[in-house]
């Protein structure tokens, strides 16, 4: 074989290997794709407030509520919002409305929302980590 033929075969082999690797990497990225979702509510009504404590291990705190400004009661979507800081959690009261900003970084259909910022009607503000 001449040098040109060897070079041509080498380029073809590398192209085939590159295409196979590209398809494999693209497939892996599609399966592990995370989606960032963010919502801001001018009137988030808190229906429930709860927590779970695993002694010495971890603690989860959350509220469940909905966008109270939405007029169509049948299509109202409830959100479970996790709170990272106990001071912020203690600040929130049931049957009250708040300005709320939440976000989620998760797989489609498995959203887990976390509190970014909360504000009462009188202007008090806190972020999800108590700052």
Structure report:
By secondary structure, the chain is of the alpha+beta class. The chain folds into two domains: 1-33; 35-127, OB fold (Dihydrolipoamide Acetyltransferase, E2P) (Beta Barrel). Strand 4 and strand 5 (113-119) form a beta hairpin. It is built from two helices and six strands; from the N terminus they run αβββαβββ.
SSE map:
Blueprint: H1 3-31, E1 35-54, E2 58-67, E3 78-83, H2 86-91, E4 97-106, E5 113-119, E6 125-127
Helix content: 25-40%
Strands of the widest sheet, in order across it, are 1-2-3-5-4
Q: Kindly report the average pLDDT value.
A: 82
Structural class: alpha+beta
Keywords: Membrane, Transmembrane, Transmembrane helix
Transmembrane segments: 7-25
Structural key phrases:
alpha+beta; OB fold (Dihydrolipoamide Acetyltransferase, E2P); 131 residues; five-stranded mixed barrel; 27% helix
Short description:
Helices cover about 25% and strands about 45% of the residues. The chain contains two helices and six strands, in the order αβββαβββ. The longest helix has 29 residues, at about 5-30.
């Amino acid at each position: 074989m001449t040098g040109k033929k060897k070079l041509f075969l080498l380029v073809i082999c590398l192209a085939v290997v590159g295409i196979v690797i590209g398809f494999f990497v693209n497939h892996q990225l599609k399966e592990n794709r995370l989606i960032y979702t963010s919502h801001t509510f001018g009137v988030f009504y808190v229906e429930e407030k709860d927590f779970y404590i695993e002694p010495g291990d971890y603690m989860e705190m959350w509220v469940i509520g909905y966008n109270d400004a939405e007029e169509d009661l049948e299509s109202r979507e409830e959100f479970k919002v996790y709170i990272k800081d106990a001071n912020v959690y203690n600040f929130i009261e049931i049957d009250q409305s708040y300005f709320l900003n939440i976000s989620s970084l998760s797989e489609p259909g498995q959203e887990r929302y976390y509190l970014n910022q909360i504000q009462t009607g009188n202007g008090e503000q806190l972020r999800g980590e108590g700052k």
